[in-house]
Amino acid sequence: MTVTRFAPSPTGRLHVGNIRSAVLNWLVTRKAGGRFLLRLDDTDAERSTEAFADGIRRDLDWLGLHWDHEERQSARRDLHEAAATKLAADNRLYEAFETPEELELRRKTLAMRGLPPIYDRAALKLSDEERAALKAEGRHPVRRFLLDRQDERWEDLIRGQERVDCASISDPVLFRADGQLLYMLASVVDDADLGVTHVVRGADHITNTGAQIQIFRALGTTPPAFGHHSLLTGPAGEPLSKRLGSLSIGDLRDGGVEPLALVSFFARLGSSAPVEPVSRVEEVIEGFDLAAFGRAPTKFDEAELKLHSARTLRSLPYANVAPRLAAMGLPEDQAAPFWEAVAPNLDAISEARDWWLLCRDGAAPTVADEDRDFVVEALAALPPAPWDQGTWGAWTTELKARTGRKGRALFRPLRQALTGRDHGPEMALLLPLLRHVPTADKL
């Protein structure tokens, strides 16, 4: 069975920089009929909060990315320590005592000599007495994983044949000097224990993947299949700005972005398939193909997302929005024709409420002085309610014959008188929904 996971740290809100991974992993699972896990990587006790964890769940629920099982990394410490014990017993985990300042000085020295700034494994040359003396000084060591200095190769789900030269990277730190477990080990242990079969994440993790494959192997477990999606850039190809990079799902929700639009947008962005509106998430799943994604950096434009959201909203059938319209107070018998009338003009669902209030309560007419006499005559000729979708055409045809007006000169003053606006839904559909129209004395 295909098993994927989304593993955010509850140290902040979900944003466009990480929701893409959530969408891709969820789609891989749903396309294969597998299981999608939510794993809260909360080993950073100082920064992790339950409020952020609740926010992550709320955002995923809003997006429709429902998970099959939840885990908290902090509850799995015994497994992590057992793995560390095995690595140490196999001489793959060792203590290193250098201070950050000492490491930085070594990096600068190597750079001046034109050498890669990788850790020189000086800690392995320390005797037991030297290690004891350093501890007596009050130094607290980090614990590093001893890499095999060789190439690690895998068939990447997105990038094809991929390799990392582990001789060119430093032995990764698995435990900080204060004893805090780090991502490199915790993620491997949890992926193996939870049976994760596929991991889709950003291309900035490629080097980590090379090292983690060795950790999987050192623990006697099989690595999952890895796929590394391209990194997002700004709309002009520039590095993603701090503002866009931290644009949260809450910000997008508050800005009127449709959840289905956000999922379908990231399901295609960076692939060879076009981003198109859909009305059901099943369409997203059916059309998803991880192999269609490429290596090149992917441009993210908030304006394009909002345009896609508007197109998605306008294409939704009434059944998809009925609960939200009911929450706005629309009578059930009028909600469906109302949606048919206003949907093509909406950028966000919140705008529907404004149109409903206009239909229910009427609007202050805005009629130019030169059109006032015409509008007075037109309103007098308007047939009595109730109106249907043929009323507008019959009414304007009669007015055209009577006054000689046509086109914009005919239709715009009537729209302004009935809605107080210069543009909006098709009037043939909107007129039957209006409960109040102005009288001549209100013009």
In short:
By secondary structure, the chain is an alpha/beta fold. The chain contains 19 helices and 12 strands. Helix 7 links the parallel strand 9 and strand 10.
Helix content: 40-55%
Overall geometric form: elongated
Question: How confident is the prediction overall: mean pLDDT?
Answer: 94
Distance between the termini: 69 Å
For the biggest β-sheet, the strand order reads 1-2-3
Number of helices: 19
Per DSSP E runs of 2 or more residues, the count of β-strands stands at 12
- Spatial extent as radius of gyration: 31 Å
In percent, how much strand structure appears in the residues?
5-15%
- Structure classification: alpha/beta
Give a short account of the largest sheet.
3 strands, parallel
Low-pLDDT residue intervals, each spanning 5 or more residues? none
Would you give an account of this structure?
The protein is α/β, with parallel strands linked by helices. The chain has helices at residues 16-32, 50-63, 77-89, 100-112, 128-136, 183-193, 206-218, 242-245, 249-254, 259-268, 281-286, 302-315, 318-327, 332-342, 350-361, 372-381, 391-403, 407-419, 427-430, and strands at 3-6, 35-40, 69-72, 93-96, 142-145, 151-156, 160-165, 173-175, 198-202, 225-229, 232-233, 298-299. The protein has a three-stranded parallel sheet with strand order 1-2-3, with helices on one face. A three-stranded antiparallel sheet has the order 4-5-8. It is elongated, with a radius of gyration of 31 Å.
